[in-house]
UniProtKB/TrEMBL annotation:
Source taxon at top rank: Bacteria
Lineage: Bacteria, Pseudomonadati, Bacteroidota, Flavobacteriia, Flavobacteriales
Gene3D superfamilies linked to this entry: RutC-like
Family: Belongs to the RutC family.
Single Gene Ontology MF annotation: hydrolase activity
Name of protein: Rid family detoxifying hydrolase
Length: 127
């Protein structure tokens, strides 16, 4: 059965989608960009801050589903400039234990919603 996950501690969707959907113990998050959930404003001050803002939103979504980063099995990272790869890795990596970090792909794309520099989505498993 499909359950919609919503939290006010992560950015509201900016289109026709939900923050996350849970199905059969799997949580699928939408791609998160750096929007402050309290103000609705984008936070693109630095790539480090942007990545951290995203991870905080993802943490809030996981938490709403009674999960945490240890449950994440797959991540997708979309970036506007591969030159930011190292800086994004540093922030992203601080949320995971190296030994149990999820599978992942990182791709550079031509453009992201709101002209963000990074967007991250996750798949987590409850089991
Ligand atoms: C930001 C996002 N997830 C979207 O689909 O526009």
């Amino acid at each position: 059965m499909k359950k919609i996950i919503k939290t006010k501690h992560a950015a509201s969707p900016i289109g026709p989608y939900n923050q996350a959907v849970m199905v059969n113990g799997f949580l699928y998050t939408s791609g998160q960009i750096a929007i402050n959930p309290n103000t609705g404003e984008t936070e693109f001050d630095s790539i480090e801050h942007e990545t951290n803002r995203i991870m905080k939103s993802l943490e809030a979504i996981l938490s709403k589903a009674k999960l945490d980063f240890s449950h994440v099995i797959k991540a997708s990272i979309f970036i506007s400039d591969m030159d930011n790869f190292t800086k994004i890795n540093e922030i992203y990596g601080s949320y995971f234990d190296d030994e149990t970090a999820p599978a992942r792909e990182t791709v550079q794309v031509a453009r992201l919603p709101k002209d963000a520099n990074v967007e991250i989505s996750l798949i987590a498993f409850q089991g």
